[in-house]
Write a structure and sequence with these properties.
Layout lengths: L1 H17 L4 E5 L5 E10 L3 E6 L2 E2 L3 E2 L5 E3 L4 H22 L4 H26 L4 E2 L4 H15 L1
Antiparallel strand pairs: 1-2, 1-6, 2-3, 3-4, 3-5, 6-7
Helix pairs in contact: 2-3
């Protein structure tokens, strides 16, 4: 149990450290995702994001329909449920004394935890910021994004 708690808190710290700058996904006026990455900074006419360590050119607000601020719930479900499933599978493979039974329990727990965590994440994800290519909407979005950068 001690190892599980250590692993949980270390993953929590890594996740907290990784979220210093918000992750954004940008959607064009047709509703298709055309850019994703970490928000670098905003300007009066658009924003700049960094993807894989490289800054993008400025993306104008006139090209954006909406901005999503968090990663999908699927990643959360995979991380939360995947760790117990992998650990349980390794115990089943080892097949010594009670390890197989413990492994099966861990796999079932991983499936339940992953599904639950993904569902909760999907419910708690913020609504997308609607820009719709309009200046007034962009001004409101810029204020919100600037707050997220602080």
């Amino acid at each position: 149990m001690k190892y599980i708690l250590t692993l949980f808190f270390s993953l929590l710290l890594v996740g907290t450290y990784a979220q210093r700058t918000p992750f954004v996904r940008l959607y064009n006026l047709e509703g298709h995702k055309f850019m994703k990455g970490r928000l670098h900074h905003t300007t009066d006419s658009g924003l700049v994001i960094s993807f894989k360590g490289q800054e993008s050119k400025e993306i104008g607000y006139k090209d954006m329909k909406k901005i999503r601020l968090r990663r999908s719930a699927g990643l959360t479900a995979l991380m939360v449920g995947g760790i117990p499933i992998l650990w349980g599978a390794s115990l089943i493979r080892r097949n010594q004394d009670w390890d197989g039974l413990v492994g099966v329990v861990l796999v079932m727990k991983g499936m339940a935890l992953g599904t639950t965590a993904g569902g909760v994440k999907a419910l708690l994800n913020p609504r997308p910021i609607r820009v719709q290519g309009e200046l007034e909407n962009w001004k409101k979005a810029k204020l919100l994004l600037d707050q997220k950068l602080k």
